[in-house]
Target: Poly(Hydroxyalkanoate) depolymerase family esterase
Amino acid sequence: MSLARNVELLRRLPKLDSLRFAEFGRSPDSSSPLQEVTGFGDNPGALRMFAFVPAQLQKPRALVVVLHGCGQTAAAYDLGAGWSTLARHYGFALLMPEQQRINNGNTCFNWFNPEDTARDSGEARSIREMIAHMVEAHRIDPRRVFITGLSAGGGMTSVMLATYPEVFAAGAVIAGLPYGIASNLREALEGMFHSPARPARELGDLVRNASDHRGPWPKMSVWHGSADRTVNPGNANEIVKQWLDLHDLPAVPMAETHVDGYPRQAWWNKDGETLVESYAITDMAHGTPLGLADNDQRYGIEGAFLIEAGISSSYHIAKFFGLTGWIADAKKRAEAKPAKPALTPAPHLARSIRSAVAEQTAEPKHEQARGFDLGQIITRALTAAGLMK
Model:
């Protein structure tokens, strides 16, 4: 497909996306525990801020920043990728910035727009202000701030890691792009569809030139579907090259393994700490991979660009961030307590309720017209079970 046709396709996307995502975005918003936060600081990028802080937080306190993809809302992506469930299970704070249609017709973060991708400017500055607000308001350890995102959110994740590397301990990019490869729409499309290869040093310099920071650099986890036709899978290789150069690591992987059936490459430092990892999700299209986690829990729900693949990217990313070793104190106490013996009449209670319902439905039709008398059903059932006289 020619670049001109790609541009024409992009022009038509707002109309298509409004239909594609309307159903997906309707119900999840009401199911997410995210709450909007206003007055968080300077907001030159005109973004909205949503956050979730569970009742119990692991110590030292951690924050994960999650950036949604095009056509999605913060709450819809939260439900789809399962981040608030993970936050509750493992006790970390969650920040989910949200793009507004006034900034981008497809609600994509503007990962290629120079005024939004420079330090202390536009959307990058807005997200940085949100992070500062969360760190202060919830006493987050500044050394335990992490970021991840899908697609355009993945591109903006690269932006944040490049422009504010001192803020983050690690990041994870899903179906995204490296920092600095585009400064306008034409270059963005070229990167998305064709992903031209660049020398590792050139890619590393793009990040080094984005701030005065000279290390240490955040750790990086890269995820991409091999059948992605929206963002060329070659971008995963370019992101890996960019961060290997920053960490002064060799191009050849130090380990090649399989996780849940998918190839994973890893590079580590002299202390054995993994600094860069890359997952290739074989035959998967554009989106966030979902599946059962190591703890047999399922995080997220299938939807647009949220794909059942047999591997939970959200869980493995949280694990890469070092967040999954914590268990809530309440859970520890519950596991330590002996189980209470069950009441002997309980096995008969369900059977008694069914019997009481059957009796009421057998009454004359003019009696049924009044509807079930729930109190009467419960009274009959408890009496039959020996729990009421």
About this structure: DSSP finds 15 helices and twelve strands in the chain.
